[in-house]
Amino acid sequence: MASETAPTTGPTDTDAQTRRPRVAVVGASGYAGGETLRLLSGHPGVEVATVTAHSSAGKRLSEVAPHIDLGHDPVLQETSVETLSGHDVVVLALPHGESGRIAAALREEYPDVLVLDLAADHRLESAEDWAEYYRSEHSGTWTYGMPELPLADGTRQRELLRTAREIAVPGCNATAVSLALAPLVRKGLIDHQVLNAVLPVGYSGAGRSAKQHLLFSEASGTAAPYAVGGSHRHVPEVLQNLRRASGLTREDGLRLTFTPVLVPISRGILAVCTAPVTDGTTTEDLLAALNEDYGDEHFVTVLPEGVFPATGEVTGANTIRIGAAVDRHSGQATVISAIDNLVKGTAGAALQSMNLALGLPETVGLTRTALAP
Amino acid sequence: MASETAPTTGPTDTDAQTRRPRVAVVGASGYAGGETLRLLSGHPGVEVATVTAHSSAGKRLSEVAPHIDLGHDPVLQETSVETLSGHDVVVLALPHGESGRIAAALREEYPDVLVLDLAADHRLESAEDWAEYYRSEHSGTWTYGMPELPLADGTRQRELLRTAREIAVPGCNATAVSLALAPLVRKGLIDHQVLNAVLPVGYSGAGRSAKQHLLFSEASGTAAPYAVGGSHRHVPEVLQNLRRASGLTREDGLRLTFTPVLVPISRGILAVCTAPVTDGTTTEDLLAALNEDYGDEHFVTVLPEGVFPATGEVTGANTIRIGAAVDRHSGQATVISAIDNLVKGTAGAALQSMNLALGLPETVGLTRTALAP
Amino acid sequence: MASETAPTTGPTDTDAQTRRPRVAVVGASGYAGGETLRLLSGHPGVEVATVTAHSSAGKRLSEVAPHIDLGHDPVLQETSVETLSGHDVVVLALPHGESGRIAAALREEYPDVLVLDLAADHRLESAEDWAEYYRSEHSGTWTYGMPELPLADGTRQRELLRTAREIAVPGCNATAVSLALAPLVRKGLIDHQVLNAVLPVGYSGAGRSAKQHLLFSEASGTAAPYAVGGSHRHVPEVLQNLRRASGLTREDGLRLTFTPVLVPISRGILAVCTAPVTDGTTTEDLLAALNEDYGDEHFVTVLPEGVFPATGEVTGANTIRIGAAVDRHSGQATVISAIDNLVKGTAGAALQSMNLALGLPETVGLTRTALAP
Amino acid sequence: MASETAPTTGPTDTDAQTRRPRVAVVGASGYAGGETLRLLSGHPGVEVATVTAHSSAGKRLSEVAPHIDLGHDPVLQETSVETLSGHDVVVLALPHGESGRIAAALREEYPDVLVLDLAADHRLESAEDWAEYYRSEHSGTWTYGMPELPLADGTRQRELLRTAREIAVPGCNATAVSLALAPLVRKGLIDHQVLNAVLPVGYSGAGRSAKQHLLFSEASGTAAPYAVGGSHRHVPEVLQNLRRASGLTREDGLRLTFTPVLVPISRGILAVCTAPVTDGTTTEDLLAALNEDYGDEHFVTVLPEGVFPATGEVTGANTIRIGAAVDRHSGQATVISAIDNLVKGTAGAALQSMNLALGLPETVGLTRTALAP
């Protein structure tokens, strides 16, 4: 194959009517950026025009991500406002902080470009929450990229995304927990003051930077909790989502205990959420509430009674699968969701929101079929 | 090496004063039986005299467990009361039900032999609990083999084991949860009506029988919950332990939600236990309670504030490591314990109890050092 | 999502001109059948009309393969000539032997249907080879489904597939080794009498039947060779391919030592092939020969000098990646290829051949982009 | 447990007659150093007096290696000639180069101390080989720590170790290949000019430094070759061993093609070695030669005909298991060995040699029983 030949651009491509939106992916050598490119490689509605990186700038994409075939093999550019000019869409796959800085510069220069930020910088509306959990200055709040989130007024987050030009892509763990719990908190089926989530999670969520505790030999054969005791940064994001979904306020005592556990898988989050049920709530009630909110959602699968999801069922897919049960002995509900942290938890969510903001069909370039085994 | 030569038995071995107790391991081709043999291969105080199996009977040990070196390579015998005669100790590593049957026959024939049952048959004191969770007839209640369990009267379970001739070895998940929670329930530091445990667990706990969902290709890359919603058989066992530790009765509303999640490790259980704290309980209170009960325990390590265990730290060791914290936002305690399900959770616990019952030093043949990475 | 609704079939679908070919997949609950369905779920040119199984017949597809979304959720049928009637294409994903029997019955009844056999039954042309390696009666020889294989007459195997109605899909290991070595044996660059291949392979190649040595706990943490010493059934298949590619005959002493090693990955074959070079062969010669044969091949990537493939670069993709070097100290060539055994090694190869036989573009429904990490 | 209390030293310990040798382990925070400590924690004949590290100096051992229990929890010292004074044994677990420097300083100051170097610095006798493969200055040649290596004069390497004060511990891959091939090359059963070894290897062999390609997410699900084409540094070491074992000289054309493949296991090397057989060599001949050389070796297991080793059978053990067969079709021998790279390949080999040099029983502190599953 002639892998390094750039795609030929014929005259029809210059026709403004038919030209596909040009996308730049910033931070293409990391996992989130790479996954964005993987999905874009199969997206018929947009064109990957530019890819950038930091320490890998100057290399070809095939050197840092040999699994991706864009049809050509671009050289990774330095990340700058200049290299990002002339695009319709910019996807920022950077560490938080860096993301906020380049976003601010970019918005000033190119106010019309659609920017999607995969980092946390623009997710929280509360500057106090930001300061407490991220210990830096707040960059502002963008439209939250979780189309399926039911809102207290009966609409969906989806509607807000159709006109957005600045989209904050949700955190992966926050996605798994928020979508699992929102319908139940909305309906008052569980005690929102005693929410609990334990999340076996894969290593790709920790990024591609070389750190000792992420080495294969350290990770293999162990289950290792982190951020125990309340420090995880997705906690305020989940609570914000649950407030938006339910209309509860900060005074209503929404409280969540949140414990991620690294387990030796590359991709995947299993959110095991529990809470005492309110009087009389049954398994059927839980499933009815989930089906009511998600029955029409293309990328949400509510499982039948007695069936619970595993992360291996969603690898590479943009789906979230959710099962629920009430334990009659303990009086608690257990709601379990599974996602691929890099797809539904990151790059897939970004593309889904991008599709909405570009006026494309919401599902284009995304799949419900996973890779297994 | 001449691996098939039987060990020579010199004259001093025939001296009744110094003769080492003869041990039979029943079900040696499974994981629990194999692990018992692995540990016994390094135990200086007893002699492995007989190993038995079912479908593997007639094979040599090296064919079913090539990793074990007993100094000789015994042929696996059929399991029968006859092949088990003439031993001082019999360790039953059989599926529950089978275990109860052979135990009954054995006790009748050889009332003096020390029998340790690795299966569940003799753990529960309540025939009602047994009937509900195991759906078969109760085999009776043996002395529970968890030496470190603090009892409501201020003693330890250890004392009961010194004179026991029938020992029910605890369930692996039950060990991880019971030892983590007992000191806190005893002291009333957490709400015992809203206990919760989510346990990433390894595949060896599911045994060595060939089942599709245990295949490498099914297990690799996934986190898969099971027994969701209250059906796990270790629930009544944990509650029984917590009642013994605290003096609470069945009327006091001890309630536990329990969700194991299979993750792709062979060995290991990480018990992530949560519960609302009672008024004013701090992280220091949790750690003080744990240290008070376990400070002198050789095989229990209570970790310093801010440190939590991972299963990879205990692989092959007979230790349980425990960390704890109070989340000041959510008002919940998180207590996390890690064990090797085959050692502290099964075979190590058996040997520790056996040592007590034989009057040997409790720690002989067991190690606090794990294999890592 | 309304996952169990069958797709609506509008009037235009009945138009014979535009009707998509109807495909039946036999053995859909296994890995090869499942992977065929996974790929077909994204194939726009054909319709999955029927899926069958043996012990899983009567279940819905979502029960045995929850990762696949065909747009509807078919019930698995019993496998019989009747359930397979009325299709344009039948893909047999059965154990060898079973495959030959149903194929014979099917061909008799429906001589026009395109049948692809993923099993070994129809790969070998020599009944003697078949008898020696498979110890059963030979079922005959079908057109071999390896489009890229260069033939001694200067054509490709591709040409034979355009008119085939009976296609024997190659073995996965045979694909990895044959494509790596064929160009070099053709050109006489290596000593074809001292060929050697060692293949770290994943567990999915061993199928989904529950066998003890395939359990996660057995497989995790080990590298385990099998079929050592010449007994592997892909040996005669590779030699047949190399003869076809080179024009060498059985008298020319083609000889291959072949050692697969199970390693703890689900998917992937890395074929490490070595042979003494003939006089003066350099690394450049090896790469030139590979590029000459494969430069135009969409699904073959010949890597630059000094770069070698890893299986993680092809997971889910229909590509084979090949690197080569001459060791100047040892005088041997090392040629390494990587494939996904379930895609390029099985289901992807089947679809590629099906596309050719149906007159569709060869690459439709197949991708060069892999899933990583 | 009171883990930070230093061991009490009673009066008899001060008795020079019975004092246990004091050992210092240099580089205790890496995998080789950690494994040395793990094994020493169960070694009754020596005392771990000092542990040192570089970037981790100042931490307690439990912070960098929480799986090890020495009975006390030492603080890691800086590595210097001063901190290493007053010991009987110093084990250097450092990167090559660093190892040579500290060794030189140490020998000058304390000529009587027994030094074992786990790095490569002192393995090769040829300064030319060293220069070619390591591109630095040669540090000299120490006694090679492979007790079982048969020598051309009919003795074993063991004899040389009894009086050694400077021991170069072998490379892990070199151990697996050398012990597998030495008996066959000695007897002339295989063509020593066409030796080939492909080695699926685990990640712990690459060390504990944080590098991107060693991350779990990179390593999981892939088989990745490296050092392809002759550049691996263990090649000259293997050839040196085979010359010593056989009496062949550099002029005799010993040639080895050597390809390691990283596979997702932490520990383990499977050396798949092949070579054309010389006239008439049978499987029985191979096994007879192996048994002749290793029949009395405690840590070498030659497997029966038809049985081949897997790395999972030796995890944590100091054993090497070897199987062999002649492929009658291809005329090649396949000899496969399995070791734990950190034990028989590094720390176990070091302790075995140390035992010899200290006049202790060779096997003390080492085990033939592995951890499985």
Automatic annotation (TrEMBL), chains A, B, C, D:
<dbReference type="GO" id="GO:0070401">
    <property type="term" value="F:NADP+ binding"/>
</dbReference>
<dbReference type="GO" id="GO:0005737">
    <property type="term" value="C:cytoplasm"/>
</dbReference>
<keyword id="KW-0963">Cytoplasm</keyword>
<dbReference type="Pfam" id="PF01118">
    <property type="entry name" value="Semialdhyde_dh"/>
</dbReference>
<dbReference type="InterPro" id="IPR023013">
    <property type="entry name" value="AGPR_AS"/>
</dbReference>
<feature type="domain" description="Semialdehyde dehydrogenase NAD-binding">
    <location>
        <begin position="22"/>
        <end position="157"/>
    </location>
</feature>
<feature type="region of interest" description="Disordered">
    <location>
        <begin position="1"/>
        <end position="20"/>
    </location>
</feature>
<dbReference type="GO" id="GO:0003942">
    <property type="term" value="F:N-acetyl-gamma-glutamyl-phosphate reductase activity"/>
</dbReference>
<dbReference type="InterPro" id="IPR050085">
    <property type="entry name" value="AGPR"/>
</dbReference>
<dbReference type="GO" id="GO:0006526">
    <property type="term" value="P:L-arginine biosynthetic process"/>
</dbReference>
<dbReference type="InterPro" id="IPR036291">
    <property type="entry name" value="NAD(P)-bd_dom_sf"/>
</dbReference>
<protein>
    <recommendedName>
        <fullName>N-acetyl-gamma-glutamyl-phosphate reductase</fullName>
        <ecNumber>1.2.1.38</ecNumber>
    </recommendedName>
</protein>
<comment type="similarity">
    <text>Belongs to the NAGSA dehydrogenase family. Type 1 subfamily.</text>
</comment>
<dbReference type="InterPro" id="IPR000534">
    <property type="entry name" value="Semialdehyde_DH_NAD-bd"/>
</dbReference>
<feature type="active site">
    <location>
        <position position="172"/>
    </location>
</feature>
<keyword id="KW-0521">NADP</keyword>
<dbReference type="InterPro" id="IPR000706">
    <property type="entry name" value="AGPR_type-1"/>
</dbReference>
<keyword id="KW-0055">Arginine biosynthesis</keyword>
<dbReference type="InterPro" id="IPR058924">
    <property type="entry name" value="AGPR_dimerisation_dom"/>
</dbReference>
<keyword id="KW-0028">Amino-acid biosynthesis</keyword>
<dbReference type="GO" id="GO:0051287">
    <property type="term" value="F:NAD binding"/>
</dbReference>
<feature type="compositionally biased region" description="Low complexity">
    <location>
        <begin position="1"/>
        <end position="15"/>
    </location>
</feature>
<comment type="function">
    <text>Catalyzes the NADPH-dependent reduction of N-acetyl-5-glutamyl phosphate to yield N-acetyl-L-glutamate 5-semialdehyde.</text>
</comment>
<comment type="pathway">
    <text>Amino-acid biosynthesis; L-arginine biosynthesis; N(2)-acetyl-L-ornithine from L-glutamate: step 3/4.</text>
</comment>
<keyword id="KW-0560">Oxidoreductase</keyword>
<dbReference type="Pfam" id="PF22698">
    <property type="entry name" value="Semialdhyde_dhC_1"/>
</dbReference>
